[in-house]
Amino acid sequence: MIRHLLSTADLSRDDATLVLDTAEEMAGLTEGRSVKKLPALRGRTVVNLFFEDSTRTRTSFELAAKRLSADVVNFSAKGSSLSKGESLKDTALTLEAMGADGVVVRHSASGAPYRLATSGWINANVLNAGDGTHEHPTQALLDAFTLRRHLGELAGRHVVIVGDVLHGRVARSNVLLLATLGARVTLVAPPTLLPMGVEQWPCTVSYDLDAVLPDADAVMMLRVQRERMHDAYFPSAREYSRRYGLDARRFARLADDAVVLHPGPMNRGMEITADVADSDRSVIVEQVTNGVYVRMAVLYLMLAGAANDGARDERRSERDEVGGAANDGARDERRSERDQADPSAQEETT
Amino acid sequence: MSAEPILITGARVLDGEPADLLLRDGRIAAVGAGLDAADARVVDGTGLVALPGLVDLHTHLREPGREDAETVETGTLAAARGGFTAVHAMANTDPVADTAGVVEQVWRLGRESGHADVRPVGAVTVGLGGEQLAELGAMADSAAGVRVFSDDGVCVSDAMLMRRALEYVKAFDGVVAQHAQEPRLTEGAQMNEGELSGRLGLRGWPRVAEEAIVARDVLLAAHVGSRVHICHLSTRGSVEIVRLAKERGMPVTAEVTPHHLLLTDELATTYDPLYKVNPPLRTADDVAAVREALADGTIDVVATDHAPHPVEDKDCEWDVAAFGMLGLETALAVVQHTMVDTGLLDWAGVAERMSYAPARIGRCDTGDGGAHGRPLAEGEPANVVLVDPSASGTVDPRASSSLSRNTPYAGMKLPGAVVATFLRGRATFGGDAAAGGVS
């Protein structure tokens, strides 16, 4: 498994399948049980570093880490030094000094998690929980997980993603991941809300939602902010809804077994109407549940997985050279603990 | 400032036949083979190329206001190390160089430092605000003798104001140096707009935002019969517009930075703000276009856009980092690497693009004794740089004379080395231990 999860582009098909299979295990071990706790990450510290408000994503990661028995610290822009203008670097150094094993980071600047992971400020595993208009890998993984539960294997399946691709990080991560998994993706948006160079992405692009719906196995509606009309991305919210919104009329064009996704939060009446959002083929609430399983899987694979030891990589050995032998013993202990950790073999007993 | 006479022996002037150069009383007293001067200190120029002192049309010295990033003293030290004998100090200081008082202060600081002549650039508009013309005439008439006016960092985007500025500076033979960036097309822009910006989720800075202003301004300059200079031209489209304008005899000159001759937007994939610059690094195709244009004269000069920033302004997220890179100390090496070693330009061409032409555009090529960009000939001011083109070195930011460390070339191996720089016959860099030693 990779050391940091920064982009779905970093995941091979095997990596992605491993995450989804592990998430399925996590679901099996917790779904419907009164005690939803596993000991896999006991003694590990996961920091949720949120430079941008996102109650749902933070809560999902927090729940995932807690179900794996990790110690979880929430570090958010409000009520901490971040709002006083402390730099990303100083925050990272602080977390490193406190001994964070994993850092889940949400930031309004694209690439901020990449900086955290590559600048040498911190040795923890970095998980991108959404960076600017770049990526949101765990959202794509939970979407793929949800799709797989309904459609089976995704190879050859057709997923239509509709909405603000330009400002959205969900679409980017989804296109890359779904392509890796062999699915066919069509992006639908007004040309103003598509990034330059989208024709080079591994997907097709359409401006005509009605035309692509009959052929879709799933349709994913992205949030579109009404305020975008003030920057002339579209003339009015009403026009956007008429051309790109999913209402009952368009919903009827879908195949009978096609499902509807939305990463939330929804703008009901803008990109999706209430009747569609609440229909029995909408899997929007399931996505939230699945988010916890997928984040458990990712945290487990990155922080506890045996494969991780190899990936804890040259930087560690570099540090060993620099830092001397004193730490090596402690590190070895942690490694062997990790080797033992296997979620299917152990269950919370207390 | 009278220094001891210096005899440079066996240097290849503009890469020509080896010759001796005698520097005495601030001037080149003689050029020729087998010169003899008993009272002169000898600098062995064997194997070195002698060029006229380089002139930078685009330098940010940061003083007054950001002395944590650079001062006139440290910036001109870096200039001397890079082979420059004159630099044009951009106006975006704090306070802005938009009055005779500020430009005279910068000019005086340059005189006091003595490492390179400092030619202050005056702001076009008050406070770079783009609304009201600064007192251009007062700056022109001041002791600083300003001839280049620029709101660099900000585009003079108002077409009417740009027209007036172009017209107004005709009275004192000034030139408006335009930072071509249509502001509405580049709000929040972070990097070149293209497939890569879409992939990285960084807000795009489209080429058209530069090209639209370049096109407008060459037309305006032709319309009012005044000179316009295009700062840091970065795209193939801008090259084509300037080429067409020159074919039509329009009064336009243009510069390219060393980094736009070498680096591409691919570096943004690191999200390391060392590579964040304005205008942004473009694609390999744009790099090829600006190289060709510099070779054929469409682009007149190489200007560094030396832009020092303290560590904290670069050691952060890309979005919040400052734009700009160091350039003075590495400019000649980058030009040798991209233009000379590739066969696009010979050393005489380098002298034209980095000394004669910038001095002409900045109107500092005349004047008794104080002129720059003059040929290495008897009677001319003794502004000379000795270059070892066969040397090569790895760029070490810590070795810089600049107060800042934001070089994009750190760890990169570049050819050539400035061995010595002489300003009016006095060594401002090297020269006392120049290749082969001194007798």
Automatic annotation (TrEMBL), chain A:
The enzyme's E.C. designation: 2.1.3.2
A GO CC annotation given for this chain: cytosol
Reactions this protein catalyses: carbamoyl phosphate + L-aspartate = N-carbamoyl-L-aspartate + phosphate + H(+)
Annotated keywords: Pyrimidine biosynthesis, Transferase
Biological role: Catalyzes the condensation of carbamoyl phosphate and aspartate to form carbamoyl aspartate and inorganic phosphate, the committed step in the de novo pyrimidine nucleotide biosynthesis pathway.
PROSITE patterns per UniProt: CARBAMOYLTRANSFERASE
Domain of life: Bacteria
Annotated protein name in UniProt: Aspartate carbamoyltransferase
SUPFAM superfamilies: Aspartate/ornithine carbamoyltransferase
Residues noted as binding carbamoyl phosphate in the record, renumbered to the chain: R56, T57, R106, H136, Q139, G264, P265
Source species: Haloactinopolyspora alba
GO MF terms held by the record: amino acid binding; aspartate carbamoyltransferase activity
UniProt record similarity statement: Belongs to the aspartate/ornithine carbamoyltransferase superfamily. ATCase family.
Automatic annotation (TrEMBL), chain B:
Taxonomic lineage from the root: Bacteria, Bacillati, Actinomycetota, Actinomycetes, Jiangellales
Assigned protein family: Belongs to the metallo-dependent hydrolases superfamily. DHOase family. Class I DHOase subfamily.
Residues reported in the UniProt entry to bind substrate: H60, L61, R62, N92, N278, H309, F323, G324
UniProt xrefs under Pfam families: DHOase (PF12890)
Necessary cofactors: Zn(2+)
Active site: D305
Function text: Catalyzes the reversible cyclization of carbamoyl aspartate to dihydroorotate.
Name this protein carries in UniProt: Dihydroorotase
Residues in Dihydroorotase catalytic domain copies: 49-236
Cofactor-binding details, from the entry: Binds 2 Zn(2+) ions per subunit.
Enzyme Commission number, as recorded: 3.5.2.3
InterPro entries (UniProt xref): DHOase, DHOase/Allantoinase_Hydrolase, DHOase_cat, Dihydroorotase_CS, Metal-dep_hydrolase_composite, Metal_Hydrolase
